[in-house]
Each structure stands twice: as structure tokens, then as C-alpha cells.
Amino acid sequence: MLFSRCRPRMVAWFLCVACGLASAAKVATPPATPSGPAAPRTLAANLGSGTVDGVFPRTVAHYLGTTKLAKPPLRVAVLSTGQNDGLLTLGLVPVGTTRDDQGRLYADYLAQTFAPRQAEMRNTADLGVRSAPDLEVLATLKPDLILVNKTLLSPQTYALYQRIAPTVVTRGNGINWKIDFLLVADALGRRDQAQTWLKQYHADATALAKQWPKPAPTVSFVQTNAQRNRIMGLGSFTGSIAEDAGLQRPASQRFAGNSQDISNELLDLADADWIFYAGRDKSLPGLTGSPLWKSLRGVAQNHAQRVELDPFYLNAGPLAARTVLAALARTSPAAPQTAP
């Protein structure tokens, strides 16, 4: 079998591109705020099919070429973070997907929200780890569409995927969640559905933006694990949602990129009117147990909110965006006030 013979070489090809991280000194003196929305809202003219929904065959231009789809895809395999979110939102359950760092095929927020489809989700095939999906299992599923982010891809692996099934490559990185959602929807012939979803999301975010006092509060986004603390920039998934909701960022987080590492000695860079932090249970004491943590203004004012790690920092899709937006809305003066 072709895939058995090629397996050693396949594994070698699945390499992730490491992301450079700026130094703590750069965090203290961030570059100027970029102009325009951080998260692009429309597909570039050279992307997508240019074909109305429901019409097949269609040829979809994506981030590594073009792919022809003969019929509406129903057996979709998902290889990258965030694409399960978009696919489920558009009404489809993947036939196969990769595991996250906890060994799950679906993050808890997806499993809970789409509970009525649990029977179908339990039948989703395990395709292994995201950095090296099991191509033999993938081939046996006979998918009619494979979805993968460019960040997990090389031309060689893309060619292998195309030999199994038509493959559409999204951009990846959280800041591109809106256009990735639109590109997936275009491949499914459901772009109008995605545009309607985004229109309502933007309307709700704009309505929330009108509720803040002037100037609007600052919000900080902090992720922690056993190795590091990270603050999220304007060019991050959560940063884009704060922007949509009309909230400000502290000066230390007004850098254009996705994230920067900070040590416990620099936790003051995580301070803001509101702090949204997340991490696995075993990692959190390293952050919240730090002597500097309790001295932060947001913490002292009981404005430090622990949030779900997956929708805030590890997945970038429409339901994750709604989850973040809802958490921001709960800090609004118009939100019902509850005891801490």
C-alpha cells in the first residue's frame, strides 16, 4: 500500500514552524498600534471560489494553490486547531480529526455546546497528533475534503493530502479566524451562512462597545503553562475580539504580534482594569501564586477572571469568539451584577 511504504518519510515531513518570541524588553516599549481592524473580515479577491453557494463543481483558491470540489463535501477531515469549531458551526461533524494536547478530539467547549450531536462526534476517527496526522487512517476514511492550516503544512505534505482527497488550506494563526471561517464555508458551499453568522457577531460586538464608559476599560489576556507566561497582543485571537468590542489594551499589550513571553518578575506587564487568564490546573499556581500577582490592580479589584484555556487561547473559531465576547460582556456596566 502506497501510504505504508511512504510512512517513514511522511512523519519526517510533518514539522511545525517555530514562532519567534520578542524579549521582555520589547514588551516594555511596544511598537505603535497598527491601523485598521487587526482581524481581516473579508477574503482577498484571489481567494475562494467566486461561485454562489450550492453550485458544484467549484474550484477554491486557498493558501497553497487551488482545489476542485466535484460535489458538496459531507465527509470532511479536520487536521488543524479551530477548524472543528467552524465546521460544527456550519452544521457538519468531521469524519476524522486530530487530538489536542490533552488527548481529546474535541475541546470541552465544543463538546458541551454541540451536545445534541454527541453520537456523531463519538464516531469521529482519531487521526493522531496535529504535527503528524496518521495518513493511513485518513485514507481509509475516504474523505471528500481535507482541511488544514498553512502553519502545519509544507508543499510535500500538501501533495500527499491531495492524493488522498481534495485539500483546502486556510491561513491559520488566531488573528485570521474570520477569513479562515469564510474560506472553509466557501469550500462547503455555505459561505452565505458564514457571512450571516459574522454579521450578527459584529452587530453584537458593536452593541457591546457602546456600553463602555469613556475611556473604555483596558483588558489584559494572559496564558500560562509550566514553562512560561504569555501576554497576548493586538494581533491575537482574543485581541481581535477585544477590538471588536471597543475595549482598550494596556500599553504593554499594544504590540502588533500574537504574544510575548514574560517572567514572573515582569507580571506588572499583565495588569489592566480586567485580566482574563487561563492555564491547565497544574500550571496556574505558578502564575496566581506569584508574589507580584496579588499586587496587580486588576487582581486587587477582583477583576481577574479565570477563563477557559481552549476557546480563549488554543482554538480560533466562531464559537470560541462567541465565548470570549460573552466573557467580555459580563464585565460591562449593563451586565447583571453577581456576588464574587
What does it look like?
With 340 residues, this protein is of the alpha/beta class. It has two domains: 42-204, Nitrogenase molybdenum iron protein domain (Rossmann fold, 3-Layer(aba) Sandwich); 211-329, Nitrogenase molybdenum iron protein domain (Rossmann fold), CATH 3.40.50.1980. 34% of the residues lie in helices and 16% in strands. The chain has helices at 2-13, 24-28, 83-89, 108-113, 118-122, 135-140, 155-164, 177-188, 191-209, 237-244, 284-288, 297-300, 309-314, 318-329; strands at residues 58-62, 65-69, 76-78, 96-99, 125-129, 145-149, 167-170, 219-224, 229-232, 259-262, 274-278, 304-306. The protein has a five-stranded parallel beta sheet, with helices on both faces. The chain has a five-stranded mixed beta sheet with strand order 10-9-8-11-12. Helix 10 (237-244) packs across helix 14. The termini are far apart. Residues 1-34 have low confidence and may be disordered.
